């Protein structure tokens, strides 16, 4: 299945984009320091007011004379790390609470289902705004915890429903009959059946975490000394970059956010093609060829009824 998954064109595009951003997150700061010999905090007084891309500054400079490429390279690490960390936290909470509720049943299921519904009805961004506003200068770990702890409820009900279905299957009933522990049944038998839900959920949470972090930074919440894509857009807005024509200041971070969302969507499409045969691109192409060949054969060799009618 892995070979088939990696052979899907959409997956290859999505993974290539994600791999690019991960490499930039890992190597961006050393590249900026040792190759470009600059940093986001370094000011080029000859470019105050902002200069277009070219020459020494590949992506131009801000109105304060700071290199935009340096901001992007440093900001990628913070944005990607927050997105991945919040996705891991959210996925763990989703799987643990959803599986526990669906497989346990009884009062535990009712209690956890109510807990999930309460979190699902909370206006997430408003709560994030208030919490992060109280905790000014919050680091990436705290921001990741806040985002992850409020982004899990959407998928928990899906996991719960699937776990409830698996709880009544013959193989789980047989395992309980022979005395297998519930934890062993969940980890060894139930969890593999949930991977089809967990994988796309994790990818969606990555994109949600990156965009949520950017939104908080755009509103000026978080550590202002930590460059990020959202903080770049925030400063571009406060300095009227759009009206001053400094497009190179806000387009790169906006494009990066869009590409993260596009990459996770492409990978999810690939997962759908692998797990759902009716959505397989190869199958659909074969069906189109078959229908075309069928029509050509019908045109060349009309049936007896068609000849009589003619």
Based on Cα principal axes, name the global outline: globular
Query: Unreliable segments (pLDDT under 50, ≥5 consecutive)?
Result: none
> What would you report as the Rg, rounded to the nearest angstrom?
26 Å
Helix content: over 70%
Biggest sheet record: none
Terminal CA distance reads: 51 Å
Estimate the strand proportion.
under 5%
**Please, what is the average pLDDT?**
81
SSE blueprint and pairings:
Blueprint: H1 2-6, H2 9-34, H3 68-104, H4 106-121, H5 124-134, H6 140-150, H7 153-167, H8 170-177, H9 182-218, H10 229-238, H11 247-275, H12 281-300, H13 304-309
Tell me about this structure:
The protein has 310 residues and is mostly helical. The chain contains 13 helices and no strands. It has helices at residues 2-6, 9-34, 68-104, 106-121, 124-134, 140-150, 153-167, 170-177, 182-218, 229-238, 247-275, 281-300, 304-309. Helix 3 runs parallel beside helix 7 and helix 9 (182-218) runs antiparallel to helix 11. The longest helix has 37 residues, at 68-104. The protein is globular and about 75 Å long. The mean pLDDT is 81. InterPro entries: BP-dependent_transpt_permease, MetI-like, MetI-like_sf. Keywords: Cell membrane, Membrane, Transmembrane, Transmembrane helix, Transport. Its main location: membrane. It is found in: Cell membrane.
């Amino acid at each position: 299945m892995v070979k088939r998954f990696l052979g899907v064109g959409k997956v290859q595009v999505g993974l290539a984009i994600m791999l690019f951003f991960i490499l930039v997150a890992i190597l961006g700061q050393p590249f900026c320091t040792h190759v470009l010999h600059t940093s986001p905090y370094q000011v080029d007084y000859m470019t105050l007011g902002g200069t277009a891309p070219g020459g020494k500054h590949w992506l131009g400079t801000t109105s304060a004379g700071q290199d935009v490429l340096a901001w992007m390279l440093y900001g990628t690490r913070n944005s990607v790390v927050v997105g991945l960390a919040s996705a891991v936290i959210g996925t763990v909470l989703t799987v643990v609470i959803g599986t526990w509720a669906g497989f346990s049943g009884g009062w535990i299921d009712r209690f956890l289902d109510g807990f999930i519904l309460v979190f699902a009805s909370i206006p997430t961004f408003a709560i994030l705004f208030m919490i992060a506003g109280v905790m000014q200068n919050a680091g990436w770990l705290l921001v990741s915890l806040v985002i992850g702890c409020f982004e899990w409820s959407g998928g928990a009900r899906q996991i719960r429903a699937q776990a409830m279905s698996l709880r009544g299957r013959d193989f789980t009933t047989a395992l309980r009959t022979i005395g297998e522990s519930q934890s062993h049944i969940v980890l060894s038998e139930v969890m593999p059946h949930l991977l089809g839900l967990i994988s796309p959920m994790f990818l969606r949470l990555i994109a949600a975490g990156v965009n949520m972090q950017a939104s908080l930074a755009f509103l000026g919440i978080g550590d202002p000394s930590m460059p990020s894509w959202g903080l770049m857009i925030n400063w571009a807005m406060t300095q009227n970059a759009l009206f001053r024509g400094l497009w190179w200041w806000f387009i790169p971070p906006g494009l990066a956010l869009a590409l993260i969302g596009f990459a996770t969507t492409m990978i999810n499409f690939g997962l759908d093609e692998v797990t759902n045969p009716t959505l397989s691109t190869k199958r659909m192409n074969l069906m189109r060829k078959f229908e075309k060949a069928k029509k050509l054969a019908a045109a060349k060799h009309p049936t007896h009824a068609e000849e009589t009618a003619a």
